[in-house]
Amino acid sequence: MIRSCSLKILNDACSCGFSFSNKLLQINVTQVTRLNYLGEKKFIYPSLVENEIEEMHVRGGGPGGQATNKTNNNVVLRHIPTGLVVKCHQTRSLEENRKIARYLMQKKLDFHFNGPFSQEVIQKAEDSKLKQQKKIKTKERLEKLKEFKEREGIT
């Protein structure tokens, strides 16, 4: 006679935990989402398909005078299937602007396809949650200090 038994199944798509006891039968199935992380905080965005991207180099503008106005170092990327456009003119180097533009396009596509589950939205939610927790801790600490001062008669 088996008194208790436990079975755990791990798959790429789902995680299933099954436990059986004498009087209890419990099945927990949870969806596992796989995120690509480098280290602890770096997220790897999905790779871009070069056939789906149209790249143009246009003349830059803004502060910098002749050095920026004469050279074609402003990169404009257009994702053909979605129609999303990214412009990048952060540096004077064309190669650096190309890398930055591709990174910005990956972020934009992640937000376009995943919406509220995109990495940027998740990161903002985590940051606001940490900020709120810090506020609560500070408020509790100040209340404790105020109570201590009242109890000890310190003004």
Automatic annotation (TrEMBL):
The keyword Cytoplasm does not apply. GO terms for cellular component: mitochondrion. One of its GO terms (molecular function) is translation release factor activity. Keywords: Mitochondrion, Transit peptide. Its main location: mitochondrion. It is found in: Mitochondrion. It comes from the Eukaryota. InterPro entries: Mito_Transl_Release_Factor, Pep_chain_release_fac_I, Pep_chain_release_fac_I_sf. Residues 49-145 form the Prokaryotic-type class I peptide chain release factors domain. Belongs to the prokaryotic/mitochondrial release factor family. This is Prokaryotic-type class I peptide chain release factors domain-containing protein. It comes from Helobdella robusta (Californian leech).
